[in-house]
From TrEMBL:
Lineage: Eukaryota, Metazoa, Ecdysozoa, Arthropoda, Hexapoda
Record GO biological process: DNA replication termination
Keyword Coiled coil: yes
UniProt-listed PANTHER family: PROTEIN C20ORF43 HOMOLOG, REPLICATION TERMINATION FACTOR 2
InterPro entries: Rtf2, Rtf2_RING-finger
Name under which the protein is recorded: Replication termination factor 2
Family: Belongs to the rtf2 family.
Alphabetically ordered keywords of this record: Coiled coil
Length: 227
């Protein structure tokens, strides 16, 4: 007991030390975030999509939420249509067992997906990225080690702004929002260019004499080739 004249109290008996949150709780929270839809909190199942901010959704749940926007959480209000998300090309984890698929969260459970390059599990313990250009998913470590602008999985080209950090931290979210706005601006520019080209083609076909001239030149070239 101490302080009764018979014993000397220990320091831990006099000072109450605030317990630190258990690391296990943090791991469980991360695991849940990587395995559940941001809208319904239900287990993720293919097809899985990500938004420009790197959050994960079940595609079916997202479509339903876009139809009935009352159930769309505030964190997903930046999603206006399916053009604002990318379907992910994930690599299944062969160590993810049928039992785990059926029973859900289990202690020491493996992740359902892995990095196709170095085999790291997509569980929240390692940083993962998706390429907006193709939807393929890798660990951030693998992307840095490969150090190329060609997707290792599908061979499609990508640029730095195509890299979306999945379930990133606050700093990552700031960067992802900037990249997302850049992609939207680029899409608008490309749309304007296509409309301009289409308009010019329409004007050319509607201008009297121009279409006839083009046809006459084409006929002359064809006859010359026959001679």
């Amino acid at each position: 007991m101490g302080c009764d004249g018979g014993t000397i109290p220990r320091r831990d008996e006099l000072v109450k030390v605030k317990k630190k949150p258990e690391a296990k709780d943090k791991d469980s929270e991360l695991s849940f975030q990587w395995k559940h839809c941001c809208i319904t909190q239900q287990a993720l199942k293919a097809p899985i999509v990500t938004c420009g901010l790197g959050r994960l959704y079940n595609k079916e749940a997202l479509i339903e939420a876009l139809i009935n926007r009352d159930i769309l959480p505030e964190s997903a209000h930046h999603i206006k249509n399916l053009k604002d998300v990318k379907t992910l090309n994930l690599t299944p984890n062969p160590a993810y067992t049928v039992t785990e698929r059926r029973e859900g969260e289990l202690e020491n459970q493996t992740a359902p997906y892995i990095c196709p390059v170095i085999g790291l599990e997509m569980s929240g313990k390692f940083r993962f990225v998706a390429l907006w250009s193709c939807g393929c998913v890798f660990s951030e470590r693998a992307l840095k080690e490969i150090n190329t602008n060609t997707c290792h999985k599908c061979q499609k080209q990508f640029i730095g702004d195509d890299v979306v950090i999945l379930n990133g931290n606050e700093e990552d979210l700031v960067l992802m929002r900037i990249r997302m706005e850049k992609r939207k601006l680029e899409m608008k520019k490309n749309k304007v260019k296509k409309l301009k080209v289409k308009q010019e083609e329409t004007e050319l076909s509607e201008t009297p004499g121009k279409s006839e001239t083009v046809n006459a030149v084409s006929d002359f070239v064809n006859k010359s080739l026959k001679w």
